[in-house]
Amino acid sequence: MSKDTYPNVRLAAVQAAPVFLDREATIEKLAHLAAEAAARGADLVVFPESFVPAYPVWCLVHAPIDQHSFFQRLFENSVMLGSPAYHRLQEIARANNIFLSVGITEKSDYSLGAMWNTNLLFDREGNLLNRHRKIVPTWAEKLVWSFGDGSSLKVSDTEIGRIGALICGENTNTLARYSLLAQGEQINISTYPPCWPIKRTGGKGGGYNMADVIRIRAASHSFEGKLFNVASSGVLDEDAIEQISAGDAEIRSFLENVAPPASMIVGPEGTPVAEPLVREEGIVYADVDISSQIHLKGVHDIVGSYQRFDIFQVFVNQTPQEPARFYTNEKPARTPARSVELAEFDEGELSQD
After folding, report:
1. How far apart are CA 348 and CA 221, in angstroms?
2. CA 235 to chain centre
3. Most distant CA atoms of the chain, gap in Å
Protein backbone atom coordinates (compact mmCIF):
# COMPACT_ATOMS: atom_id res chain seq x y z
CA MET A 1 0.00 0.00 0.00
CA SER A 2 1.47 3.36 -1.01
CA LYS A 3 1.67 6.33 1.36
CA ASP A 4 3.30 9.72 1.58
CA THR A 5 6.72 9.73 3.19
CA TYR A 6 8.65 12.51 4.90
CA PRO A 7 12.40 13.10 5.12
CA ASN A 8 14.91 11.98 7.70
CA VAL A 9 17.41 14.80 8.19
CA ARG A 10 20.73 15.36 9.94
CA LEU A 11 20.78 18.83 11.47
CA ALA A 12 23.92 20.67 12.59
CA ALA A 13 24.15 23.75 14.84
CA VAL A 14 27.57 25.42 14.77
CA GLN A 15 28.79 27.27 17.86
CA ALA A 16 31.88 29.27 16.97
CA ALA A 17 33.66 32.62 17.11
CA PRO A 18 34.27 34.59 13.92
CA VAL A 19 37.66 36.09 13.16
CA PHE A 20 36.60 39.41 14.64
CA LEU A 21 35.64 41.95 11.97
CA ASP A 22 37.62 40.10 9.30
CA ARG A 23 35.15 39.03 6.62
CA GLU A 24 37.42 36.90 4.42
CA ALA A 25 39.12 35.09 7.31
CA THR A 26 35.75 34.41 8.93
CA ILE A 27 34.32 32.99 5.71
CA GLU A 28 37.30 30.65 5.40
CA LYS A 29 36.75 29.49 8.98
CA LEU A 30 33.10 28.95 8.05
CA ALA A 31 34.18 26.91 5.03
CA HIS A 32 36.26 24.62 7.25
CA LEU A 33 33.42 24.11 9.75
CA ALA A 34 30.86 23.54 6.99
CA ALA A 35 33.10 20.90 5.42
CA GLU A 36 33.50 19.22 8.82
CA ALA A 37 29.73 19.08 9.29
CA ALA A 38 29.18 17.84 5.74
CA ALA A 39 31.76 15.07 6.27
CA ARG A 40 29.65 13.91 9.20
CA GLY A 41 26.57 13.72 7.04
CA ALA A 42 24.82 16.99 7.89
CA ASP A 43 22.05 18.08 5.54
CA LEU A 44 21.48 21.51 7.12
CA VAL A 45 24.35 23.45 8.70
CA VAL A 46 23.46 26.56 10.73
CA PHE A 47 25.87 29.35 11.74
CA PRO A 48 25.24 32.02 14.43
CA GLU A 49 23.78 35.51 14.28
CA SER A 50 25.95 37.96 12.32
CA PHE A 51 28.75 35.39 12.20
CA VAL A 52 30.18 37.24 9.22
CA PRO A 53 31.98 39.45 10.12
CA ALA A 54 31.04 39.57 13.86
CA TYR A 55 28.21 40.44 16.21
CA PRO A 56 28.47 44.13 17.31
CA VAL A 57 28.96 43.52 21.04
CA TRP A 58 30.47 47.01 21.34
CA CYS A 59 26.99 48.49 21.06
CA LEU A 60 26.20 47.03 24.47
CA VAL A 61 29.28 48.21 26.37
CA HIS A 62 30.45 51.48 24.77
CA ALA A 63 28.74 54.88 24.60
CA PRO A 64 27.48 55.77 21.10
CA ILE A 65 30.08 58.53 20.79
CA ASP A 66 32.85 55.93 21.15
CA GLN A 67 31.54 53.53 18.50
CA HIS A 68 32.36 55.27 15.20
CA SER A 69 35.46 53.24 14.38
CA PHE A 70 33.66 49.96 15.11
CA PHE A 71 30.75 51.01 12.91
CA GLN A 72 33.09 51.78 10.00
CA ARG A 73 34.99 48.50 10.38
CA LEU A 74 31.72 46.58 10.47
CA PHE A 75 30.48 48.26 7.30
CA GLU A 76 33.76 47.71 5.48
CA ASN A 77 33.65 43.98 6.34
CA SER A 78 29.93 43.37 5.85
CA VAL A 79 28.47 41.30 3.01
CA MET A 80 26.66 42.75 0.02
CA LEU A 81 24.49 40.41 -2.03
CA GLY A 82 26.17 39.65 -5.33
CA SER A 83 29.65 40.45 -3.99
CA PRO A 84 32.65 38.06 -4.06
CA ALA A 85 32.05 37.26 -0.37
CA TYR A 86 28.44 36.36 -1.12
CA HIS A 87 29.48 34.13 -4.03
CA ARG A 88 32.02 32.41 -1.77
CA LEU A 89 29.18 31.46 0.60
CA GLN A 90 27.25 30.06 -2.35
CA GLU A 91 30.30 28.06 -3.36
CA ILE A 92 30.65 26.59 0.16
CA ALA A 93 27.06 25.34 0.11
CA ARG A 94 27.50 23.88 -3.37
CA ALA A 95 30.89 22.28 -2.71
CA ASN A 96 29.62 20.52 0.41
CA ASN A 97 26.17 19.61 -0.97
CA ILE A 98 24.46 21.12 2.08
CA PHE A 99 21.70 23.51 2.96
CA LEU A 100 23.66 26.38 4.51
CA SER A 101 22.30 28.98 6.92
CA VAL A 102 24.61 31.92 7.65
CA GLY A 103 24.11 34.93 9.88
CA ILE A 104 25.67 38.01 8.30
CA THR A 105 25.69 41.74 8.61
CA GLU A 106 24.38 42.72 5.20
CA LYS A 107 25.25 46.11 3.75
CA SER A 108 23.35 48.25 1.30
CA ASP A 109 24.31 48.96 -2.30
CA TYR A 110 22.75 52.45 -2.10
CA SER A 111 24.07 53.85 1.20
CA LEU A 112 27.47 53.97 2.87
CA GLY A 113 25.94 53.16 6.22
CA ALA A 114 22.74 51.10 5.88
CA MET A 115 23.16 47.61 7.32
CA TRP A 116 20.86 44.79 8.37
CA ASN A 117 21.07 41.82 10.70
CA THR A 118 20.44 39.16 8.05
CA ASN A 119 20.14 35.40 7.79
CA LEU A 120 20.93 33.79 4.42
CA LEU A 121 19.64 30.31 3.55
CA PHE A 122 21.21 28.52 0.57
CA ASP A 123 20.21 25.20 -0.98
CA ARG A 124 22.60 22.39 -1.97
CA GLU A 125 23.33 24.13 -5.29
CA GLY A 126 24.16 27.43 -3.66
CA ASN A 127 20.89 29.07 -4.68
CA LEU A 128 19.57 31.64 -2.22
CA LEU A 129 16.27 30.41 -0.79
CA ASN A 130 15.63 33.31 1.56
CA ARG A 131 17.25 36.47 2.86
CA HIS A 132 15.69 37.23 6.22
CA ARG A 133 16.41 40.63 7.72
CA LYS A 134 15.66 40.95 11.43
CA ILE A 135 12.44 42.93 11.55
CA VAL A 136 13.35 44.94 14.67
CA PRO A 137 16.95 45.31 15.90
CA THR A 138 16.95 44.73 19.65
CA TRP A 139 17.81 47.53 22.07
CA ALA A 140 21.36 48.85 21.38
CA GLU A 141 21.47 47.00 18.03
CA LYS A 142 19.51 49.95 16.63
CA LEU A 143 22.79 51.88 16.67
CA VAL A 144 24.02 49.61 13.88
CA TRP A 145 21.25 47.80 12.03
CA SER A 146 18.25 49.06 10.08
CA PHE A 147 14.77 47.54 10.35
CA GLY A 148 13.84 44.62 8.12
CA ASP A 149 10.36 44.09 6.69
CA GLY A 150 7.78 41.34 6.28
CA SER A 151 8.97 40.29 2.82
CA SER A 152 11.37 37.76 4.36
CA LEU A 153 8.98 36.26 6.90
CA LYS A 154 8.72 33.24 4.64
CA VAL A 155 9.17 29.49 4.85
CA SER A 156 11.26 27.70 2.20
CA ASP A 157 9.82 24.42 0.95
CA THR A 158 12.78 22.07 0.45
CA GLU A 159 13.56 18.39 0.06
CA ILE A 160 14.49 18.20 3.76
CA GLY A 161 11.41 20.03 5.02
CA ARG A 162 9.89 23.48 5.26
CA ILE A 163 12.50 25.80 6.76
CA GLY A 164 12.00 29.16 8.44
CA ALA A 165 14.42 31.43 10.30
CA LEU A 166 14.22 33.96 13.11
CA ILE A 167 17.06 35.94 14.65
CA CYS A 168 17.62 36.19 18.41
CA GLY A 169 14.88 38.37 19.97
CA GLU A 170 12.47 37.54 17.14
CA ASN A 171 12.13 34.16 18.80
CA THR A 172 10.07 35.89 21.51
CA ASN A 173 7.95 37.74 18.97
CA THR A 174 4.75 35.71 19.09
CA LEU A 175 3.33 37.02 15.82
CA ALA A 176 6.59 36.56 13.91
CA ARG A 177 6.75 32.96 15.09
CA TYR A 178 3.10 32.36 14.26
CA SER A 179 3.54 33.79 10.76
CA LEU A 180 6.10 31.05 10.03
CA LEU A 181 4.04 28.30 11.63
CA ALA A 182 1.07 29.36 9.52
CA GLN A 183 3.18 28.66 6.40
CA GLY A 184 3.80 25.07 7.47
CA GLU A 185 7.21 25.48 9.09
CA GLN A 186 8.81 22.14 10.04
CA ILE A 187 12.38 23.22 10.84
CA ASN A 188 13.11 26.55 12.52
CA ILE A 189 16.52 28.18 12.45
CA SER A 190 17.18 30.44 15.44
CA THR A 191 20.47 32.30 15.77
CA TYR A 192 22.05 34.13 18.71
CA PRO A 193 25.00 36.39 19.64
CA PRO A 194 28.03 35.39 21.72
CA CYS A 195 26.70 37.28 24.74
CA TRP A 196 23.97 39.69 25.76
CA PRO A 197 24.97 41.93 28.68
CA ILE A 198 22.15 44.24 29.77
CA LYS A 199 23.24 45.65 33.13
CA ARG A 200 26.33 46.43 35.20
CA THR A 201 27.05 44.22 38.18
CA GLY A 202 30.22 45.56 39.78
CA GLY A 203 32.46 44.80 36.83
CA LYS A 204 31.25 41.24 36.47
CA GLY A 205 29.17 39.93 33.61
CA GLY A 206 25.66 41.30 33.64
CA GLY A 207 22.48 40.05 32.05
CA TYR A 208 20.31 37.04 32.19
CA ASN A 209 21.43 33.46 31.70
CA MET A 210 21.76 33.21 27.93
CA ALA A 211 21.78 29.42 27.86
CA ASP A 212 18.47 29.26 29.73
CA VAL A 213 16.92 32.00 27.63
CA ILE A 214 17.79 30.18 24.41
CA ARG A 215 16.52 26.88 25.78
CA ILE A 216 13.19 28.47 26.79
CA ARG A 217 12.73 30.15 23.42
CA ALA A 218 13.68 27.08 21.39
CA ALA A 219 11.49 24.80 23.50
CA SER A 220 8.52 27.18 23.32
CA HIS A 221 8.53 27.46 19.53
CA SER A 222 9.21 23.76 19.04
CA PHE A 223 6.45 22.70 21.41
CA GLU A 224 3.87 25.20 20.17
CA GLY A 225 4.59 24.49 16.50
CA LYS A 226 5.46 20.78 16.86
CA LEU A 227 8.69 21.24 14.90
CA PHE A 228 12.47 20.96 15.12
CA ASN A 229 14.46 24.01 16.19
CA VAL A 230 18.15 24.47 15.37
CA ALA A 231 19.61 27.10 17.72
CA SER A 232 23.12 28.32 16.84
CA SER A 233 25.07 30.78 19.01
CA GLY A 234 28.31 32.68 18.70
CA VAL A 235 31.37 32.53 20.94
CA LEU A 236 33.19 35.53 22.38
CA ASP A 237 36.89 34.68 22.10
CA GLU A 238 39.96 36.41 23.54
CA ASP A 239 40.67 38.35 20.34
CA ALA A 240 37.16 39.85 20.32
CA ILE A 241 37.36 40.73 24.03
CA GLU A 242 40.72 42.44 23.49
CA GLN A 243 39.50 44.51 20.56
CA ILE A 244 36.13 45.42 22.06
CA SER A 245 37.50 46.38 25.48
CA ALA A 246 40.11 48.63 23.79
CA GLY A 247 42.25 48.85 26.92
CA ASP A 248 39.33 49.42 29.32
CA ALA A 249 39.91 47.01 32.23
CA GLU A 250 36.32 47.26 33.46
CA ILE A 251 34.87 46.35 30.06
CA ARG A 252 37.35 43.48 29.73
CA SER A 253 36.35 42.06 33.12
CA PHE A 254 32.70 42.52 32.24
CA LEU A 255 33.03 40.58 28.97
CA GLU A 256 35.19 37.88 30.49
CA ASN A 257 32.48 37.11 33.04
CA VAL A 258 29.33 37.58 30.98
CA ALA A 259 26.96 34.61 30.82
CA PRO A 260 27.65 32.51 27.71
CA PRO A 261 24.97 31.33 25.26
CA ALA A 262 24.29 27.76 24.14
CA SER A 263 23.61 25.91 20.92
CA MET A 264 21.07 23.11 20.76
CA ILE A 265 18.58 21.20 18.65
CA VAL A 266 15.10 20.85 20.13
CA GLY A 267 12.39 18.46 19.01
CA PRO A 268 8.61 18.83 18.59
CA GLU A 269 7.94 17.82 22.19
CA GLY A 270 9.97 20.81 23.39
CA THR A 271 12.97 18.79 24.59
CA PRO A 272 16.54 18.62 23.23
CA VAL A 273 17.22 15.81 20.78
CA ALA A 274 20.99 16.20 21.25
CA GLU A 275 23.23 17.32 24.09
CA PRO A 276 23.36 21.16 24.12
CA LEU A 277 26.73 22.89 23.84
CA VAL A 278 27.59 25.74 26.22
CA ARG A 279 30.50 28.17 25.93
CA GLU A 280 32.96 26.08 23.87
CA GLU A 281 33.28 26.01 20.10
CA GLY A 282 31.84 22.92 18.45
CA ILE A 283 28.97 21.47 16.42
CA VAL A 284 25.76 19.91 17.72
CA TYR A 285 24.25 17.17 15.54
CA ALA A 286 20.87 15.48 15.55
CA ASP A 287 19.19 12.95 13.26
CA VAL A 288 15.49 13.76 13.03
CA ASP A 289 12.38 12.35 11.37
CA ILE A 290 10.03 15.04 10.06
CA SER A 291 7.10 12.59 10.23
CA SER A 292 7.41 12.51 14.04
CA GLN A 293 5.56 15.83 14.04
CA ILE A 294 2.37 14.29 12.65
CA HIS A 295 0.88 12.54 15.68
CA LEU A 296 1.70 15.52 17.89
CA LYS A 297 -0.16 17.81 15.48
CA GLY A 298 -3.11 15.47 15.89
CA VAL A 299 -3.20 16.37 19.57
CA HIS A 300 -2.44 20.10 19.41
CA ASP A 301 -2.12 22.07 16.17
CA ILE A 302 -2.29 25.85 16.64
CA VAL A 303 -2.46 26.49 12.90
CA GLY A 304 -5.00 23.74 12.32
CA SER A 305 -7.53 21.95 14.49
CA TYR A 306 -6.51 23.76 17.69
CA GLN A 307 -7.20 27.26 16.40
CA ARG A 308 -10.27 29.47 16.06
CA PHE A 309 -9.86 31.45 12.86
CA ASP A 310 -13.30 32.98 13.38
CA ILE A 311 -12.00 34.61 16.56
CA PHE A 312 -8.33 35.33 15.79
CA GLN A 313 -7.04 36.75 12.51
CA VAL A 314 -3.43 37.58 11.68
CA PHE A 315 -2.41 39.76 8.73
CA VAL A 316 1.23 39.85 7.59
CA ASN A 317 2.42 42.57 5.20
CA GLN A 318 5.07 40.96 2.96
CA THR A 319 5.58 44.04 0.78
CA PRO A 320 9.29 44.94 0.50
CA GLN A 321 10.02 48.39 1.95
CA GLU A 322 12.34 50.64 -0.08
CA PRO A 323 13.87 54.09 0.61
CA ALA A 324 12.08 55.52 -2.44
CA ARG A 325 9.92 54.35 -5.31
CA PHE A 326 11.02 55.86 -8.61
CA TYR A 327 8.73 56.29 -11.59
CA THR A 328 8.42 58.33 -14.77
CA ASN A 329 5.48 60.42 -15.93
CA GLU A 330 5.16 58.43 -19.12
CA LYS A 331 1.55 57.46 -19.62
CA PRO A 332 1.09 53.67 -19.70
CA ALA A 333 -0.53 52.07 -22.72
CA ARG A 334 -3.49 51.10 -20.56
CA THR A 335 -4.57 52.22 -17.12
CA PRO A 336 -3.79 49.52 -14.56
CA ALA A 337 -6.41 48.42 -12.06
CA ARG A 338 -6.37 50.47 -8.90
CA SER A 339 -4.92 48.87 -5.81
CA VAL A 340 -7.15 47.40 -3.12
CA GLU A 341 -6.28 50.34 -0.86
CA LEU A 342 -7.32 52.96 -3.44
CA ALA A 343 -10.43 51.04 -4.42
CA GLU A 344 -11.84 51.75 -0.97
CA PHE A 345 -12.26 55.42 -1.91
CA ASP A 346 -14.01 57.14 -4.79
CA GLU A 347 -12.38 59.88 -6.85
CA GLY A 348 -13.99 62.68 -4.84
CA GLU A 349 -12.69 61.36 -1.52
CA LEU A 350 -9.16 60.90 -2.92
CA SER A 351 -9.01 64.53 -4.10
CA GLN A 352 -9.99 65.99 -0.73
CA ASP A 353 -7.43 67.03 1.94
Report:
1. 48
2. 16
3. 70
CA distance 105 to 56: 9
> Which SS3 state, helix, strand or coil, does residue 317 take?
coil
DSSP secondary structure of 29-89: HHHHHHHHHHHTT-SEEE--TT-BS---THHHHS-GGG-HHHHHHHHHHSB-TTSHHHHHH
Q: Are 49 and 168 in contact (CB under 8 A)?
A: yes
Q: Are 138 and 144 in contact, with CB atoms under 8 Å apart? A: no
For range 314-327, the mean pLDDT:
94
Q: Give the torsion through C-alpha atoms of 86, 88, 91, 92, to 10 deg.
A: -100
**Is it the case that residue 340 has pLDDT exceeding 60?**
no
Q: Is the pTM of this model over 0.70?
A: yes
The predicted-structure confidence for 121-146, as pLDDT tens digits, reads as follows: 999 999 999 999 999 999 999 999 99
Catalytic center residues? 49, 134, 168
Supply the DSSP symbol for 339: P
pLDDT digits (tens, 9 = 90+) for 221-278: 999 999 999 999 999 999 999 999 999 999 999 999 999 999 999 999 999 999 999 9
**Whether CATH 3.60.110.10 fits 8-299:** yes
* Percentage of residues of the chain with pLDDT beyond 90: 87
Question: CA 103 to CA 46: how far, in whole Å?
Answer: 8
